[in-house]
Specification:
The protein is α+β, with helices and mostly antiparallel strands. The protein has a single domain, classed as BirA Bifunctional Protein, domain 2. The protein contains 4 helices and 10 strands, in the order E-H-E-E-E-E-E-H-H-E-E-E-E-H. Helix 3 crosses helix 4. The termini are close together.
């Protein structure tokens, strides 16, 4: 996997570059992983509802072709964009999302933080009162669970968001992991379509770590967990 740390780059040109890479790739095009951060921007998913964008103010809003609702990207957040041909990997989209989440969970564990999945809500969450505890969540996904169950975010904050696109079996967009951000812009939206969902970062939990360090660890975990 060709891994590139792009640093701070504008969202729109990066989005266009992902689309171009995906549309132009052939059977022998190598898979890639781009790691970067963006200036402040709200991005809206294909199914995004305008009423989840409360008061964007001076922050631009970009309509995208990823899944999901509105989210925020800004400095202090590691963006990871895996550009994979799923035909090579031998797994499907559901497994791909699981592996993305697992890479985030392992990255957080590297810093002593316990990440959790919540049934019905892609992304990774932490306990606000005990981010370092290991007890499983009652809200975790479980077998024989109704697929239309409303997510329960009681006591949780969201630390990583996912939004992916698959075109001709090839992935783009990806995930955002919050490291040390100005979290105020999340008050201007219903994050991922959920009113009042708290959003946190590693610094919220008094984990002081450099952006480049987290990008390196997350990149390593993604390369390991996205292997065929």
């Amino acid at each position: 996997m060709d891994t590139r740390v792009l640093g701070k780059v504008d969202y729109l040109p990066t989005y266009q570059a992902m689309q171009d890479y995906t549309s132009q790739r052939g059977p022998d095009t190598p898979d890639a992983l781009w790691l970067c951060e963006h200036p402040p921007v709200f991005t809206q998913g294909l199914a995004g509802q305008a009423d989840h964008l409360l008061m964007p103010g001076d922050i631009p809003v970009v309509q995208t072709d990823r899944g999901g609702q509105v989210t925020y990207h800004g400095p202090g957040q590691v963006m990871a964009y895996p550009l994979l041909d799923l035909r090579r990997t031998g797994y499907f989209v559901k497994e791909y999302v699981y592996r993305l989440e697992e890479a985030v969970i392992r990255t957080l564990a590297h810093y002593g933080v316990t990440g959790h999945r919540v049934a019905g809500a892609p992304g990774i969450y932490v306990r606000l009162d005990d981010p370092f505890g290991h007890a499983p969540l009652p809200q975790r996904p479980q077998k024989n669970q109704a697929s239309d169950q409303e997510p329960d975010f009681t006591g949780l904050g969201k630390i990583a968001a996912l939004g992916v696109k698959v075109s001709r079996h090839c992935t783009y967009h990806g995930l955002a992991l919050n490291v040390a951000m100005d979290l105020e812009p999340y008050n201007r939206i219903n994050p991922c379509g959920y009113a009042g969902l708290p959003t946190v970062d590693l610094s919220t939990m008094d984990v002081s770590v450099d952006w480049n360090d987290v990008a390196q660890v997350l990149g390593d975990k993604l390369r390991a967990h996205l292997q065929p």
